[in-house]
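Hi R.,

Here are the chain sequences for the assembly we discussed:
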Amino acid sequence: MENKPIFTIDNLTVTYGQTVALENINLTVNRHAVTALIGPSGCGKSTFIRCLNRMNDLIPDCHVDGCICLGDEPCHHEDYDVISLRKRVGMVFQKPNPFPMTIFDNVAYGPRCQGIKNKAVLRDIVENALKQAALHDEVKDRLDTSALELSGGQQQRLCIARALAMEPEVLLMDEPTSALDPIATQKIENLISDLKKRYSIIIVTHSMQQAARISDYTAFFYMGKLIEYGKTDLIFSLPKHKQTEDYITGRFG
Amino acid sequence: MAVLRPYFDEALEALKQNMLDMFDYVITAFDEMFHMLESNDKTLAGHLIEADRRVNVQEQRINEDAFLIILKQCPVASDLRRIMTAVKIANDLERIADYTVNVAVYVLKTDHENQKYRTQMCAYRPPLMNMLRLIKEAYATQDVALAEDVSEQDYAVDTLYQRDIEHFIAIARQETDDEAAEAARSLPVIKHFERAGDHVTNIAEHIVFLHSGEHKELN
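And here is the predicted structure of the full complex:
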């Protein structure tokens, strides 16, 4: 199980009405690794990451073709319960989006929705999630204050804690540090490297240096196609495709 | 394709031009060194020692430029290889130039005209000058085939060196003490030439890496 890919994507094509956002994507995402998705705006990387926990279900004219397997189970179909999918595949967004409630309630929100009411159990879950998100020490004395009072970097780590409280297998991160200062960014990057021991992480980033620093695998998308996918060390030292080289060296014209 | 990083490209181009200048300094120094050996010109020896400073300064400039480009531009892939190979090749060139100083010192210290050994030494001139000129061309044009070709030519230098070693040992065994001492003093000179050939081979390997990202051992 450990060696099997967490996601297997076959012939994935996504269209919004007449527009083809992703075309015939084949990719396997490795377990307990950080996979970075890179490419210019509009290349399809966000569409791709949103397919993995079916965020695109909400878009009326979005059509998904092909197969996405989480482990061995096809999860892209309506037959697969989307709630249980999102329990297994958590997501963190570009801008920190804490709920307007206390720090504690933010993290306890998911478990409560799952029917967990026991206060001691909830306390353990919240504490554990905050510790994993490297936020516990900073907020342990004010868990009942509003999450909106936290700094941007703290809010983003709170969102990570909120996702971790559901004990997911995968963490999807869509540009999680683009709104943060360098110190907060560094904390999130360290956190990502720590978390990959327990979770499989897929991150969209516009920072080449960030992808090179924290990811084990990198996928380069361009105009809805997966141009190149491989070990990060190789992609950033000796990419096979000229388009990849042009993009990572900043010469994409 | 649109030039999206004009300042970066300018910096890389300047680095390359500094490298080509450094190649020229070393080629000139080697040419003058052989001329000095042929003519036993001690004035030229002094000039060679002085001229080596220019090479050292050039290497330092290349290192500093490379450091700043890495610092400011965060290069990856072929850009990073260009910078790393420049630093490594500059180091090999500096070592090659150092040999001209050692040979100049040898000429200054040699009292009498020892024509026999100087002729032997000058036999290294055609292969080494050829290798230096061609390796510069291979670097300038990123011509991997030419670089590999140049490294093959190092066999000729190695063959000369093997022959001369045997010859010097024979002298040390059979000739008078003075002759043996002179042979012993001359031996490091041809050793320098042999090492210079090895450094050219190193440069050829760096050019292969620059082009293909492969660490390939040549010769």
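Chain B has a mean pLDDT of 93. The radius of gyration of chain B is 19 Å.

Let me know if anything looks off.

Best,
T.
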